[in-house]
Amino acid sequence: MVAQVTEQALYILASLARAECHGYGISRDAEELSGGRVRLTAGTLYGALNRLTADGLVEPAGEREVQGRRRRYYRITAAGSAALAEEVERLRSTAAVLGARVRTAPA
Amino acid sequence: MSRRVLQACVRAYPREVRGRDGDELVLLATELAGRHGTAREALGLLRGGWAERRRRAGRGRRIAVGLAAATGSLLAVTAWSAATHPGRVEQETFTCADGCGDVEREVDARVDAGWDCAAENRDGPGTTWRCTLD
């Protein structure tokens, strides 16, 4: 059983599934992945990363110097990958069921 | 100007968070303000800070409720113990295998002090005394 993830957390996990990343990179990636719909502010991102870390889905990956400033990096854990895969499967299943209903609905 | 506004908004977070992550939050918010605008980032920090304070207050309440429940359980057990063992406040056991003089003197001292001591295992190689002070 994995923790339930919010939409914001889903995009953070999806961003980190590609590679370890820092806060700014995660926010930018989430915005691109969602077509501009999910725009994570620093406050939202900070809270979400803390919750994901507390749930064991994400973990700190140290600090690195990037473009003249130290940045905190994060990485997805095995539990985080499992939670992401489970949530994507749930969404796929939901989309299939609802999509079938839309196709058969009278015009 | 933008940075000063964001620094002010970070004050919405508890002091402990500001001390640990305040600089990181301001830097990240300043960077993201370039994409989202300062107002959006400022609101995000205020909302995040209040949420963090609410979360901590909730955790504090849960700890208080837990402590109250634990204290209540302890009182209940004490009350039950007092009800099922009225007046009994202390119990000690003395045992010796042979050469029981010292132990017998200890038991006698308890009896002199008002304890009720009863010997057990009289047929075996040793003796056990159970002393109770009511």
Automatic annotation (TrEMBL), chain B:
Assigned keywords, A-Z: Membrane, Transmembrane, Transmembrane helix
Transmembrane segments: 63-83
Protein name in UniProt: Uncharacterized protein
Lineage start: Bacteria, Bacillati, Actinomycetota, Actinomycetes, Propionibacteriales
